[in-house]
Every structure is written in C-alpha cells, then in structure tokens.
Amino acid sequence: MNELDRVIHEPGRLLIVALLSGVKEADFLYLLRETALTKGNLSSHLAKLEEAAYVEIEKTFRRKISLTLVRLTPAGKTAFRKYRKAIDGLLRHSPA
Amino acid sequence: MGEPIDLDEIAKRPFRYWNEDGLTELFVGFMMFTPACLFRLGNVLPKGSFLVILLPLAWLAAILALKWGLKELKERVVSPRGGYVALPARGRTSIALVVLFAILAAAAFIAFPSWPGQSGKTPGLALAVLFAALFFIGGLQAKSPHLLVLAGVPLLVSVWIYRNSVGFSESVSWVLLAQGAALAFSGAVRFRRFLKANPRVDTGV
To answer: What fold characterizes domain A6-86?
Structure first.
C-alpha cells in the first residue's frame, strides 16, 4: 500500500483525476455532476490536487458567465498513470 | 475501500456525456439529410441549369452553419445545464484515416458508373449495409439501444431498394435521406429529454 499515491488514492480525488484523464479540460459544474460530491467537498478536493500540482484551475468568463476550468497537469497525468500501474500490481498479487 | 472503482469506465464518461444531449446525432443527421435533399433538388432542376453548380456550395454553407449551430447550442444551452467538457483533439493518424476514407469513398462513387456489370442498386445497398454495421457496432460498444434501432433504418431502406427499380444515385440518396432523418429525429428527442432532465443551474463558483 506504501507505493500508492495518497493524494490520488482518496476515492473522491481518484474519481476527479480519472474523469479529467479522459478530457482536455472540464468545468466545475461537470465535475460536480459526475462526482455527485457537494460543492464544498469538490472545492476542497480540487484544492488538494492543485496543491500537489496535479491539476490546473483557471477561472474565466464565457458569455459573461463565470467558468472554472480544471485540467490535469503533466505531473497529474504521470501520477495517475503510476497509480494505475501500482493498483493493478497490487490487485494482481493479492490473494483471491 | 468499499466498492472497487472502474477507472476505465470513469475515463469514458466524458465521451458519453458529450453525446448524451443528442446534438451530435442531430448534427450528423442533418449532415446526411442535407446533401440528399440537395441531390434530389438537383434532379428536378432543368438540365444545364446554373443552379446545379450552386448545390455543392449550398452543402458547404449548410455544413458551416450546422457546425456553428452545434457550437452555439453546446455553449449556450448544454454547458450551463450539464457542464462544459472539452474532449482531447483527434490525433493526426485518425484525421488522416478519415480523409483517406473520404477520398476512397468519393473515388469509388465517381468511378462506379463505369464499372462493368454494375447494378444501379449496388451503391445504395452497400451504403445501407455499411451504415447498419456501423450503428450496430457503435450501439454495442456504447451500450446504446437507440443506436441498434437506428441500425435497422438502413436495413429497411435496403429492402425497399432491393425490391424496387432505383438507379445508382437515387439509391444512395434514399439511404442518406432516411438515415439522416432518423438520426436527426432521434437527436432532437434526446436533446429535448436532456433539457428536461438538466435544468439550468448556477454553481456560484
């Protein structure tokens, strides 16, 4: 278990990172909808991921409406890839 | 740790969300429907009419208008309700393959009338089978039953083509017309459902 990245391993953050791994970028509303987290929880998880430099958060405006864009950084992509590898290895070696 | 998280399934969700509102179907439906309509219009125009030259331009204009409409609807209607997602750009290889396929299809379409022993029905039947196969495979992969239903439309048209005496271009245009109309209808229904299920929200973020 020591090999696992604790920042990503938390289920809420893992869900966010997995969702972001399939897109160029997504906004706060989409993440809110897909993760079913509360606004506060999602903000807190995003802050932790940003602190770890795994995501990049950009606050912008589109058609006069505020938009919070989130995207995975190269470091985030690498961390997610490593996490998947580690978890696959663990599952393979765990007793049935 | 609770229930295991299927990371592959989660990574596919944005793509499913992109298609959930039905706008892509509506767009592709009109992309098929429009040239078929223009082609039928070309058939009723007097031979040698200069208006025939304008038909490809009308198609080009329709494609640009549809692309603009799709972008506007996504930004103005879909994003404020379900959120904004930008899918990764297509790779060069996939773009090259699409272009190659389009060139080969166009070449076959142009060269077909001079092929020996060809039947006028064959291109329409081939296109219908191709569409049916694509929608069937797409439906199974995306686990979307409505795509399986849409796979049945070209098959029905192919039965009609097979039983009736239709020419080369007419058979193709009927397939495009029927599949385009079915897709546009299905897209419109799904768009309406999406709007009902996703009222506009303000995240306040």
So the answer is: Arc Repressor Mutant, subunit A (1.10.10)
